[in-house]
Structures are given as structure tokens and as C-alpha cells.
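= Paired protein data =
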Amino acid sequence: MTGTRRTVAALFLLPALVLLGALVVYPIGYSIIRSFYNASGDGFAGVDNYKALFTDDGIRTALKNNIIWVVFAPTVSTALGLIFAVLTERVSWGTAFKLVVFMPMAISMLAAGIIFRLVYDQDPDKGVANAVWVGVHDTFAQSSAFPKAHPGRESPLVARDGGFITKAPVHTGEVVALPLVGVAPDQMPDGAQKAAAAKPDPAGITGTTWQDFTRGKGVGRLGAPDPTELGYSGMKIEAVLDGKVVATTKAASDGTFTLPAKADGALLRLPAGNFKEPYNGVEWLGPSLVTPAIIGSYVWMWAGFAMVLIAAGLAGIPRELLEAARVDGANEWQVFRRVTVPLLAPVLAVVAVTLMINVLKVFDLVFIIAPGSSQDDANVLALELYRKGFAEDQPGIASAIAVFLLLLVIPVMAFNIRRLRREVRR
């Protein structure tokens, strides 16, 4: 009656209202006003800054990437969270698994960005992603041990079709020398032995292919195996006659090889497969894959958040409904699709919408993970806001981007609040 309670309530709310006004209301109001002024702030620009949102190439790329983020990041995170929550509900080690999946939430975006910058490193010796990818690739398609090998001076070989072929045909009983250079001694295959001069064979064609290089000035003979030179173990040699391969062999560990008499008159070819460059993996942070790669790091962080919320909703589902469906003959997939998911729909909607709001403001991961060469291709609105406001000194456009982001977030946030209130009333 005296209004004392209202006064006390106002006094308690005053500090929070002051902070809210200083940290939220004032910046929003100032940004809206600043978005209508030019870069220097002393001239009224009208809607020119907002026109730039749809004409500037950098902002258009950022807007396109934001759409990709909003569509895929919340969807994948929510789907993984649902799968993890459902699959771990019945196993004894489910709690431990949930703890491991949720742990990335304890890591800051900065730390996660640094971690995934290393994970996506192009060098397979550093980047985990490429180490796994290269390991799988090399299991099915082994790279050559001689990627840099090539003919030296006075060589009987010439380049053709990615490999090398002799200048003149060879004949039965002839000993052929196929010297190459370009492979460091410490990079030769483990099974390589000292090169040996092949012996003539009246019934075939023999020869040696080896690393015709000896360390030390003036040491060694050109075009002939020396005691310290190694044979090209496993080098493939083809005999080509009238454009067709008539015989094939591989060099022994000392570089010697033998071809049958049917190779008489043929040219000897070292095919391109002998010189195949090692597979170096995928360019995860290149222009074409940088956005999906960064979304992957985001999913790694936020799938645990989705899992915990969905698991809480799953725990509130009446078990009688699930058992009734099973009694009626439904299999586990049908129970999941027709009973569990519909009952979890409100929770899934809240999780998805919350993640949508979050990805609209994503900045840290893109700024840290994307290298400078592909940052333009991975650009998002929050990063473009930072770049326009600080790197390019265009605070008017930066303010327009901030207002645009606010307008994008408000409908999603309002939908989420309405959902939450509806659930509370139930």
C-alpha cells in the first residue's frame, strides 16, 4: 500500500538496468544511428551503407557463407546430438561417453581454433586429418619411391608422357644402361643395394637402372655403376614396340633387369608410374573446403551441447509409450522415428534454434582457422563486421552489418522464447 515493495524492487533492479542500458541498449542505439553516417561520421549517408550489404563482394560472400552455416551447422550438430543421446541411453558406459563428447564445450573458441588449425595442416606429418587421409590413400595407391628421378648428362633416355624412353631401340644380347639422377641417397628405398653391372644374355636383353651420382667432386664414372651408387630397386621397365608394350619387368634390388627376346628392336620405357609424386592429402583450408572444414570444428564443439539437452528431454519421455509401440510390433527404428522423434520435437526445435542464433554470430573459429589466403572465401558477417570496422576503417558499413545481424537474430530469438514459454505453460 505504501509502495515500499516497489521501491525496494526498483532499487534492486537499478544496477542491472544501468548495466543493461550501458552494455546493450546504448550500443544498439548508437550502432543504428552510426549506420546512417559516412566513414568519418560527419556526413549523413542515408541508406548507402545498407546498399553496400548487397553490392560489396566481401559482404555478399559473407552472407552466402552465413546461409551455409545456418543450414548445416545446427542441423548436423542437432542430428549428432540426437544420435548420441539415443545410442548412449542403454549402455553402461553412456555417461563416460557423454562426458567425452561434452568436453569440447569447456574449450574456448580460440583454443578450438588453434587445435583445428593444426588438425587441418596440409603437411601429413603435422595435420591429423591429412595423416589419416594419406594413410588410407597409400594403403590402396602406393606412391613411387623415385618422384624426383630424371636423366642426367649424356643419358640414353628422353622424357615422354610423364616418364622416360630410350632414344634408340635395343636388341637381344645387348646390355642397356639406364642411369638416372635426382634422388638423394637417404631417400632411396630401404631394399636398394649397390648397383651392379648387368651381364650379357644371348637369349634376352639385360641392363641396369641406378642412381648415377657419387658424392664428392670428381669422383665416379658417368654412365657406369660405381661402388657407392645404388640400384633403383623395383623400377618398372617396359619394352615398347610399334606403340605396344610387348614385355615388362622390374629392376632387382641392385638395379639389374632382364627382358625376353621378344623385346628385340623395342624401345625401353620407364613409365610415369615410377615417378609419381607422393600424395600430400586434401587441402582442407583451401578456398573450396575451408567453410565445411570450419563447420566441422564447430560441430565437434557443439554436438555435446545438443546431446546433453536432448538427453534431458529423452529422460522425460514416458517409457510406457515406447513399450506400447514395441508391444504393438514396432521395431526399434520405427519406435525411434514415429515415437521418440515426435515426442522430442520441441526439444529438437529449441536446440536447433539456439544453435542458429549462435552460428549467426560465429567469428572466432573463422578468424583463427582460415589462413589469410582463403579467409575471404570463409568470410562470415561477424568477421566482415570486424574487418570493415577495424582493418578497413569503415565504421558506417560495420554498423550496418551489426544492425543487419541484429535483425536476423531477433526473429529466431523470438521464436525460441515463444517455444520456451509454451513448454513452461505445459
Observations:
- The CA atoms of residues 62 and 81 lie 27 Å apart.
- The chain has a mean pLDDT of 88.
- The chain has two domains: 31-107+284-425, 157-275.
- Residues 4-34 form the longest helix (31 residues).
